[in-house]
Specification:
Chains A, B: This is DNA-binding GntR family transcriptional regulator. The structure is a homodimer. By secondary structure, chain A is mainly alpha-helical. Chain A is built from nine helices and three strands. Chain A binds a DNA duplex through helix 2 and helix 3.
Chain lengths: ~240, ~240
DNA sequence: CGATTACATATTGCATGTAATTTTATCGCC
DNA sequence: GGCGATAAAATTACATGCAATATGTAATCG
């Protein structure tokens, strides 16, 4: 294999090679240049990035730990494949974590947080109106990012970020990402109002309902997808 | 330093050295032979375990990912010190995760799960009656372990296990572990009944209340501790 | 005498060597 | 042509080498 899947341009030899290898590989996975099932070869990446195998090995270990890859003894690591059932259990987790984030964010909410969310919502509104799916995804992630930052619980943030990465991988594997944009927008509106309202318990429930609905729509989409495949098979 | 803090007896040279080093070091931390603040020296551990530095380095990285140690560039890793505020935020997380575990366990609960919990409760009851704090801690952990196993969500289990490790470290750093044994026992009773009752939402709330009360008692204990110290200073 | 600098020592971070194991390629055979 | 055994190549897991950096200590200076 002579074609490079990793972008070595951002690597500067000399300091923090593990971090840099980690970012490059992670980016390759999340952008699907490394699809689920792809092998993460230590010597291959070391060649591509023009660094030694040690930092690459460490970077891959980190990726594994984040749940983006899994390895078996003496056979190396591959990008994880996340099925629908696993995706559901990820959303089970996400539901309670986003709920907690909303609750804590409501406790801590000052005007800047609310402003950030309002700004996000406006941009999100425009994106949805013009049917820009990519930007919708981006702003949706940013919305939840604001809330978890406002929550001020580092472990919570890490866990949510980790789930987000796995969700991104699963999305390609199983279900399409379009659809439900309007609903998401409306639910974000409700959540912003709840946070402004100042009752942590209410905000938590609104956030949880939001994620629950995402999970359900995911389930439906997967069923539809399945049905679609069945139909094609029947042809 | 010639005294060994790690127990190398369980290491067999030849396969899976990273896992073995990881377990030994983790055990040393959780058993407090390596107190918070202790340095985790790669060459020192390699000497003690009589293996090379590579697997030791990897094992320590894993310990870091788990939140049991933290490292700064070119200065190596030290066992984390977890203050009261951080412990509180750990319990915030734990609250919603144990709630989720109880909810999922209730969905999945068969007679064996309930039986396990009942058996645990009996043993726990005996331990509390005889004032055995160590055994109380052990059975308390086992109780929650049964529930999260029954929940059948791997990521959830990992997250809870990780928090449990950090809680163990924090307990020494900040607050005593005795106290609240009777309350814990009573609340476990309520939770078992809720799981048997079969309503997932109820079980979730009971579990969350249980953890919330633990967090609050923790807070109180810390305050009392603080007060105690102040009084001694006044003498 | 305390603070600062220079040096010695130890450790981290990365590079590379090597045996064991797995994967891939080659071959003979049906 | 397809299939199984064998050999070659590549990869993993671990060991070790080495330069850069940090820590501790002694010498120097104000």
């Amino acid at each position: 294999m002579t074609q490079h899947t990793l972008d070595a341009s951002s690597i500067t030899r000399g300091d923090g090679l593990v971090d840099k290898a980690y970012k490059v590989i992670r980016d390759a996975i999340l952008s699907r240049r490394l699809a689920p099932g792809s092998r993460l070869s230590v010597p291959e990446f070391a060649r591509q990035l023009d660094i030694s195998r040690s930092p690459v090995r460490e970077a891959i270990a980190r990726i594994e730990y984040e749940g983006l890859a899994e390895s078996t003894s003496h056979r190396g690591a591959v990008v994880v494949q996340i099925g629908l059932d696993e995706l559901i259990s990820i959303y089970d987790l996400r539901e309670v974590l986003e709920g907690l984030a909303a609750r804590l964010a409501t406790r801590a909410a000052d005007t800047t947080v609310i402003d950030d969310l309002e700004q996000n919502w406006q941009a999100h509104h425009d994106a949805v109106e013009s049917g820009d799916v990519e930007r919708h995804m981006e702003l949706d992630a940013a919305f939840h990012g604001h809330i978890r930052d406002a929550a001020g619980n580092l472990r919570l943030s890490d866990n949510l970020r980790q789930l987000q990465g796995q969700i991104r991988i699963a999305m390609t594997t199983t279900v399409a990402r379009r659809g439900g944009m309007d609903a998401a927008l409306a639910e974000h509106r409700t959540l912003i109002d709840a946070i402004r309202g100042g009752d942590p318990a209410v905000a938590e429930n609104v956030a949880r309902d939001h994620i629950t609905r995402l999970r359900e729509s995911l389930h439906d989409a997967a069923l539809a997808d399945h049905h679609h495949i069945d139909e094609r098979h029947e042809t």
